[in-house]
Write a structure and sequence with these properties.
By secondary structure, the chain is α+β, with helices and mostly antiparallel strands. The chain folds into two domains: about 200 residues, Metal Transport, Frataxin, Chain A, CATH 3.30.920; about 150 residues, no CATH class. It is built from twelve helices and nine strands. The strands form three sheets. A five-stranded antiparallel β-sheet has the order 1-2-3-4-5. The protein has a two-stranded antiparallel sheet with strand order 6-7. A two-stranded antiparallel sheet has the order 8-9. Strand 3 and strand 4 form a beta hairpin. Helix 1 packs antiparallel against helix 2 and helix 10 crosses helix 11. The radius of gyration is 24 Å and the shape is elongated. The relative contact order is 0.09.
């Protein structure tokens, strides 16, 4: 069923490019029948996922190839943004790819010439959120396979968290392919339940505008600033005159921030996760230090309270912790019990200093989450 569908697309697509596109039986199969076949073989748990296929818009997709996608509607319903499972069929080869990929149209729009680097980085972060049983047997390096020289689509090589290269001339059994599909569906679900990834966008029926799911006010703290621009946090937690002048109104969402303080907090933590130093991460290409992310323990949503009522600034190293990407997403997107467990671990280590600086006890801190 699944096996027959992908063999048909893989073996017939290249030849079809020489034939008229409109009402071509293969194009109709890719758009209509193949997605329905995938829906039929999805495990019951994932039946609500959307399936789509594309062979091009008004003509064959000569450079980008054909694809069949499986989308969690809470993340995305199309291939231009978010992350999803995809079978990709380039022209000029009997090889095709299956894996957990990302929408590079979104990345190109956001990151311009650095879109490939951005997708590779988020792929690394996504891998940290998946337990080994769900990723076993899949490749994590950049996709490499025999593309025809006429194919210029780098999307077949970039941004896969996990992937496999199949050859339609030596395809595994139907059951093996279904096992691979199930494995990746669970990996997909695990990434989503652990907070997703940096580039996530959500869209609702009430609000069609793209909105970042990840808390944007901390994104500036994640990339290490240049050494000459690295500022250390003041010894005093009181608002400086400059910070006071930068606060527009008590209703504005714009508040002073200094990413250098986040880097200082990471340095003080020896670039380890403060939940547990055993948590895995990867090495930053900029300086060779382990990659962690900065998080304001007293959230930035409380900036006004501490500024207006206590004349204090919460953008200080004493209030910034170093977390692995998984813990950072969990503290933003986990359930209340999981978040409070993380808060207790941190407060046991940092609580005394936090109380001395802001008179913030454990119960007050929990109430902010």
């Amino acid at each position: 069923m699944l096996r027959d569908a992908v063999i048909k697309i893989s073996t017939e697509f290249t030849q079809a490019l020489n034939e008229p596109y409109v009402k071509h039986p293969l194009a109709d199969f890719i758009r209509d029948k193949a997605p329905k076949i995938i829906t039929q073989v999805l495990p019951e748990k994932f039946k609500h996922y959307k399936t789509k296929g594309s062979s091009g818009l008004q003509d064959w997709a000569f450079s980008s190839g054909a694809w069949l996608g499986i989308f969690n509607p809470e993340i995305t319903e199309g291939a231009r943004q978010g992350y999803y499972l995809v079978y990709g069929f380039p022209a000029g080869t009997t090889e095709f790819i299956f894996g957990l990929g990302q929408g590079y149209t979104e990345a190109q729009s956001t990151y311009k010439s650095k879109w490939e680097e951005a997708l590779e980085r988020t792929a690394e972060l996504m891998r940290l959120k998946v337990s080994s049983p769900f990723s076993k047997g899949f490749n994590t390096t950049q996709a490499k396979f025999d593309l025809d020289k006429s194919s210029k689509d780098r999307g077949y090589r970039v941004g896969y968290a996990f992937h496999k290269i199949y050859n339609s001339l030596a395809l595994p059994s139907e059951q093996e392919m279904l096992n691979d599909l199930s494995q990746m569906l669970h990996a997909y679900e695990e990434i989503y339940s652990n907070g997703g990834r940096n580039l996530d966008f959500i869209s609702t029926k009430k609000n069609k505008k793209k909105k970042k799911e990840y808390e944007e006010d901390e994104e500036d703290y994640q990339n290490p600033p240049q050494k000459k621009k690295l500022k250390k946090s003041p010894n005093s937690n009181e608002l400086t005159a400059k910070e006071k002048s930068q606060i527009k109104t008590t209703t504005s969402s714009v508040r002073p921030r200094e990413p250098g303080y986040g880097e200082e907090a990471k340095q003080l933590a020896d670039y380890k996760c403060e939940i547990s130093s055993s948590h895995e991460t990867f090495i930053r290409r900029t300086d060779g230090n382990p990659y962690t992310e900065a998080h304001h323990l007293i959230p930035y949503s409380q900036y006004d309270y501490y500024a207006d009522k206590k004349d204090l600034c919460i953008d200080r190293a004493v209030n910034i912790i170093s977390l692995c990407p998984n813990c950072h997403r969990k503290i933003h997107h986990g359930n209340t019990n999981e978040i409070h467990d993380l808060i207790e671990i941190i407060y046991n280590k940092r609580g005394q200093k936090l109380f001395e600086a802001y008179e913030c006890n454990l119960e007050t801190l929990k109430s902010y989450y």
